[in-house]
Predict the 3D structure of the following.
Amino acid sequence: MSFALDGIRVLELARFQAGPRGGMILSDLGAEVIKLEAIGGEETRRHPPMVRGQSVYFTVYNRGKKSVCIDLRSAEGKAVFAELVKKSDVVLENFRPGVMKAMGFDYERLRALHRGIILVSVSGFGQYGPYTERPAFDSLGQAMSGLMTLTGQLEGKPIGTATSVADRYTALHATIGTLAALRHRDRTGEGQLVDVCLLDSALTMVEIPTSYYLSTGQEGGEGGRPPYRTKDGYVVIAAAGRHMASALMKIVGGPDDDTPLAGSSPAAERRARIEAWCATRTSDEACAALQAAGIPSAPVRTIPEVAKDAHLWEREMLVKMDDAVAGEMYVPGVTVKMSKTPGRVGPVPTPGQHTDEVLGTVLGYDATKLAALRAAGAIA
């Protein structure tokens, strides 16, 4: 079977989530992603939650990759990395800005090794700007972009999302940048530096209210979207069009108002009408009535309910796979469905599992060379 990114080799120097998730997507689409780990393995291999000794966090973001353990602090390890760069298409890293240069592998050095190499740098605040040297994780991006303020607006205090949305957005931007850089290289033969970061990505989630404020000097544009309580749970109602909003008011017995609900919180009187109507019905009853009228609505599900959703299983968004450590694990499937070149979900590598394979097949190292590197502590 052929894949969209067949023939593309990615060297991944990434930890935690934003960088590795970008590498995961490229692997899903067919690229050979070689995860270069420190001797003993990347630190998130021990990141909770754990299932029978295997990190779910590491499993989800690193399936389908090849693991090569190299000591990049040693001269021998640096030499191996330099040789791999010459045989690769992309270097994906998420160190703090300046670390790659300190290692001796900033973009200019990589370009000297390989004119067509693409360096994708994922960071908290980007490769330039006043904040560039600060360390960062997802929650800082949410806080500094204003996303937490909007999320918690109706609660009266900032609230971070339960999952790392800024990391996930950044991973998507890293993937998009990689694909665009590969297309540019197809035309010109030149690689380039791709710079994506958490704060930039988080800002895209508040772009409407930010643009509105800069244009008017007023806050608004988008607000909180709290669900409505039913007899047995909660439902979300998204009456985005004027005809939907008008139909909703007729159903709940409110005033004739066709102001769309999606994107902003409804006025107090309208919300009170909707709340009173939902409170007398189960979530299924409320959704059935609303959907019959063409009004988008859905129950707020728990994770156990999501995990049993037949729709997600049929679309292979939930996949069971064998694991060398845990025996069996469940991971998300390939998100981008392609008719000619469907993606793949590969196994999770053990630390250094592919060291000999990659260095032997890609660089042509024989057993003597590998043994010498291993004796020097440069590989494992």
